[in-house]
Amino acid sequence: MKIISTLIIAACVTSSLQAAEPKPLRMLLITGGCCHDYKEQKDLLKKGLEERANIEVTQVHTDDKSTKPPLAIVGNPEYAKGFDLVMHDECAADISNPESIKGVLKPHEDGIPGVNLHCAMHSYRIGNAGQKTEAGAERAMWFDYLGLQSSGHGPQEPITLSFVDEKNPITRGLTNWTTIREELYNNVVIRDGARPLARGKQTVRTKKKDAEGKEIVTEKDNEYVVVWSNEFGPKKTRVFSTTIGHNNATVSDPRYLDLVTRGLLWACGKLDDSGKPVAGYGPKAQ
User: Is residue 79 in some structural domain?
Assistant: First the structure.
C-alpha cells in the first residue's frame, strides 16, 4: 500500500508540474512582397526566435515580389484569432485601401501585440508617405500603430546602432554594434507616445567631379531612430519595431535576433525589468 501511495503522490506531483508549465507564445509571422529575400528570412526568424524563447511561430507567406502582394491576411480582420502576437515583416507599400488597412490593424486595436520589422514600416501607406501626417487622420492609420512615420531610405552602408534607453528592459545590457551594409530608414514623424530605444548612424559617401575633372568625395552622416516601442489604441496595445533587417546576414545575426526576441517578449508582457524572460518563457531548454 505504501508503494502504491508513493506512486500516486509522485504521479500527482508530476501532473501538477506539467500543468504549471506555461504554454508557448503563439506568434503569427507575416512575410512576402517586394525587395527582400523573405523566402529565406522567414525561416531564419522562425529558427532564431524559437531557439531564444518559449514560442511557436506560424508563418503566413507569399513568394510574390510585388509592392501589392496577395497576403492571406488582407480582407480578413480575424486573421490573428488564436494568436498571442503578430509579427509584420511584409513589404506592401501599395496596399493602400483604407478598409484593407483597417482590417490589418483590427487585431492590434483589439489588444493583440505587434512586432514590426524593416519594410513593415513602408507598408500600408495612403498618399504621399513623405508628407507629415497628423495623428488620427486616415492617412496616419498605420503610422499611428507603429508610432513613427518613415518614407524612404538611403544606400546600403554600415549602420552604427547606439542604444539610447539603457534602463529599458528591452535594451538593458545590450551592446552597441555596427551592422553590415544595411538600409537606414528616415524619420518623418515620431509620435509623442513612441519611446526611442536605439539610434542608427550611417555615413554616406558621394563622388563627383569638379570643373577640372578631378574626383571629389564628400561624406555626410545621417542619424535616425531605428528601434522603438509604442502603445497603440484605446487598449494601449504594446508594439515593438525596428527598421533594421534588410539583408539575410543581419536577420541571422545573433545580436539582431536577441533584440527582436526581447521586443516580442516585452510586447507580450513576458520580459522582466532586468531584460530576462519571465519564468517559463526563455529558451525551451532552460
Answer: yes
